[in-house]
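Blinded run. Sample ID left blank on purpose so nobody reads anything into the name before looking at the predicted structure. Input follows.
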Amino acid sequence: MNKYDSLKEEAYLANMEIPKHGLAIYTFGNVSAYDKENAVFAIKPSGVPYDELQVADMVIVDLKGTVVDGSLNPSSDTMTHAVLYSAFEGLGGIVHTHSPYAVGWAQAMRSIPIYGTTHADHLPGNVPCTEVMADSMIEGDYEVETGNQILNVFREKSLSHKEYEMVLVACHGPFSWGKDAMKAVYNSVVLEELAKMALFTEQANPQTPELKQGLIMKHYERKHGKNAYYGQK
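Blinded prediction complete.
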């Protein structure tokens, strides 16, 4: 019995949700699950197809990216996950995918506008998109700098990572997170749906205005506010 078995299983089950929801093909994308007490996380191994993945394949790494347990190389995005776990308090899981609608907005270098109440049910504003990575960052520690891109846009826009649990990295793709790995996957699925809905909205009416503030706050607060009443107690 390995002390990391439950963490590996959490990461494995979350990773298997990625192809199930059409968020990635072949080896694209990865999910990690974080153990705050031991400051380590389990993440998908690099280049292993989802249909070949096993619980034992999950790699345990610390926040410096050092492999603590596992025989395979961890995801190439490992250090981006490490940067986010180190900076954003309360994260229990992170997802990175190459889902087509979200990637489309990322490649267009655009935030996803908040056009409707489905979007407002999950976050109180546009899905943020980072700046395009500078050459100096590309030539540096690329995966660390990808994490820094995300931190920068949250800092510059004064956004809370607890309210905005998703982001687009310009020219690259989406990242999402949550209190655990499955919530991070949920947010990744939601992000792809919001990206799709926003694209359809602009196709139907390119002059569609963003959702009025009153509706944004009504829908966000009824699910996330102190007097939230959506769902069951």
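Unblinding after everyone has recorded impressions. The CA atoms of residues 51 and 119 lie 32 Å apart.
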